[in-house]
Amino acid sequence: MFFAAQNFNRNVTVPWWETQILNADNHAVEETLRMLGDASFIVLNAEMYKLLNVTGYADTKTVEKLFIFPPGPPFADRMVHDGTVYSPECNCIYFAELHPPKPGFSTDAVPWVWRVNLNGSAPVTEKVYPKPQLTVPNGAYYHDGSVYWAQEGNYTHPGGIVRMNPLTLETEVVLNNFLGHRFNSPNDVVITRGRVAFFTDGYYGFDNFNDTLKPELANGIWRWDMSSGDVRMVAGEGTGIWLNPNGVALNKAEDKLYATARGKTSDDAAGQRTIYVFDIATPNALGPRLRDGMPLAYVDTGFPDGIKLDAEGRIYGGVTGGVDVYSPQGELLGKIKIDKGDVAVNMQWVGDRLYIAARDALYRVQLGCTSVQHYP
């Protein structure tokens, strides 16, 4: 921690400012925690002030709350929103809704996704209905006029990658197997300018949601050459670092791949809760390969779900309480906070504004940077 206390405790499901002080007479520490709880941002490095476009802590800066999501169905214990992806064709953001169930229930394959329409004087968040509907979609990426979803699938629909027209909402399954084996629960996808997709595949559907067949493959990161059709695993459980990989992102030069891993559960103290970075080897006849995978950052609360980069190489991870911001070297620069009790799931830039999709609400903050992703 960044203060001294004689006795304290905090489990992995709560942020810093909710640390429990066990010696009740430590008023100075309690006041520090109260100030952290009231703040909109936490700055640990002066670089964070530059990112926020402020000169110091006395300047006013806020996080807007744009939309509060309605309650989930009776069987769900929470709502999760993932797959935040911007399409310039419609000037809108799409993200998926997923209802992780209470024990004993399967995930509800809802027929809609959320769309944030940015064409008016204020953003409008609404339900829209892809056709055919997606089957438990998660992460998504924009590439060459289309939105590509990583969808988890269920017992009757194998998971894989689905392409969606952002204007008509028509969908098409473009990849759903490795030599006849079903993928397990594809979670997120990113695509290089040269049409090579990297996507994560974990055991979420079978272990957590009870809505997919027993896995036939190890979980890990897959590489799909969209031009040649070559599909191969490039970082898997056999490397000893993966248990339920999740978010995935590329840097601007597309020579580094960032990926997150959750572990067994998000509240597991022994879970991974880690952002990894890989070098992408020089492309050759076999296509881009990953090498030198190593932990870049270990988060302190929950696990890094969605992950994004800005044009200057900073890394953003959605965690309990807000968004962690890291330098390219993995130093925690600060936190963008959201409402107490809420969990940031994923993010998306539009211009210099970062939209944060959380379990309870949609937020927006203006920053001094733009996305790593280029839009035509």
Automatic annotation (TrEMBL):
| Pfam families per UniProt | SGL
Where in this chain does the record put each SMP-30/Gluconolactonase/LRE-like region domain?
Answer: 157-356
The name on file for this protein is SMP-30/Gluconolactonase/LRE-like region domain-containing protein
The superkingdom listed in its UniProt entry is Eukaryota
Species for this entry = Trichoderma harzianum CBS 226.95
Organism classification: Eukaryota, Fungi, Dikarya, Ascomycota, Pezizomycotina
